[in-house]
Amino acid sequence: MAGASRDQALSLLAAANNHGDLAVKLSSLRQAKDILLSVHPSFAAELFPYLVELQCSPETLVRKSLIEVIEEIGLRAMENSSILVSVLLVFLRDGDSIVAKQSIVSGTKFFCSALEELALQFHRHGKVERWLEELWVWMVKFKDAVLAIALGPGLFGVKILAMKFLETYVLLFTSDSNDFEKSSIEGSGRAFNISWVVGGHPVLDPALLMSDANRIIGVLLTLLQSANNLSGCLTITVVNWLGRNMFTPYS
Asked: Which residues 6+ apart lie within 8 Å of 219 measured at CB?
């Protein structure tokens, strides 16, 4: 990163972290984001350790904005995004629901992007780069943490988004068309198909992933049988979720 851009970005991140005015903090973070997006991802990654320091901000809007910045920058610089994704796991348990919800939304996008990249690298090169293996480890931790949120006590809005992530997870690991190129071109809303990684993928085991998806459906069925432990709206959400995933045929 050029010296001037680096110094300016560091100054803005310091202001976002330490200034007494919330408006200045948010403005500084936006300006720092613009600088990081304007340079090569490998250069931007040099400042990721300073960016993630904002996770300790006492202001809810700063933490939420940080997640949005992490999503925008991290998906562009996935090779260096593990440090950013680790922040999302912390924010899943944030005391403010809007931060936790944003973390699930952004984390879902990372999960899908990492999964697609795992399939693409294997399809094109027959191997997976080390950075992507490390990122996937974080994604598995994210999945487990979101599942715990869905099943445990917590705020309704956060649990609903956790359920939505689990629905995405189950859909991703439901076998469909095995035509890799056709699925990629059509862009049918799922940019990944479990059949793409059949045949010795070094990271993804299709049988285990499909088994885990079925396990999650089973867990939710058990949860539904104990509906007295759920709020009325959450019970309806689980019923609708299971109805879509158990009885809707996949084309």
From this structure: 147, 151
pLDDT digits (tens, 9 = 90+) for 73-98: 999 999 999 999 999 999 999 999 99
**How many residues are listed for the chain in this entry?**
251
Helical axes 97-125 vs 60-74, angle rounded to 10°: 10
Percent of the chain with pLDDT over 70: 81
> What are the angstrom distances between the C-alpha of 135 and each of 75, 112, 234?
12, 12, 31
The two tokens of residue 53 are 């320091």
Q: Give pTM, 2 decimals.
A: 0.85
Alpha carbons 12 and 10: distance in angstroms, whole number? 5
**CA–CA gap between residue 75 and residue 33 (Å, rounded):** 13
